[in-house]
Prior knowledge:
This protein has 5 helices and 4 strands. The protein is of the alpha+beta class. The protein starts with 15 loop residues before the first helix and ends in a 7-residue tail after the last helix. The relative contact order is 0.21. Residues 1-5 and 182-191 have low confidence and may be disordered.
Amino acid sequence: MPKxxxxxxxxxxxxxxxxxxxxIARQPDDPRPLYRFSGHVVEDPQPGRYHLYAGxxxxxxxxVTIAHALAGLRDVVTVSYVDNARDGRGWAxxxxxxxxxxxxxxxxxxxxxxxxxxxxxxxxxxxxxxRATARVVSNDFKGIGIDFxxxxxxxxxxxxxxxTDFTTFTAPGNELLDWNAPARRxxxxxx
Length: 191
């Protein structure tokens, strides 16, 4: 089969008969966190270096894309969207939202596997990708949102200008997220 150009690579349609339902295969005694990539942007972010993989269906992803828009990062951090439906292969790039414009991945899992060989954890959106290192930086929506509001200020054109110290929102916001955690934790995943 000929190799297709990146711009035309799309995943095949959802097929739960062939691939099964998406499941998070996790042992109860696994000490690793569900969202393994909780890093932050540590270097001075430059326009075009980072890409956000998002999903319209996910409220946590929507939160990050809103932070992205309000921070004025449209010309700094590119965004693409995975399809709303998934099978056992996980989130995919399909015709509805187009191919992955950065790496030509057909499945978001490929980004995780490029970061951690043999990745066996949960593949989620939002996911922040670093083009320079070709690795996932974070899939922690709280951390990505904070990075967008703070680390990128010097290259952003914010929609709302203020001098708010976003770190002051961390403790109360985390308390609310922890309180709401049982409602958003996938079934069978321990706290």
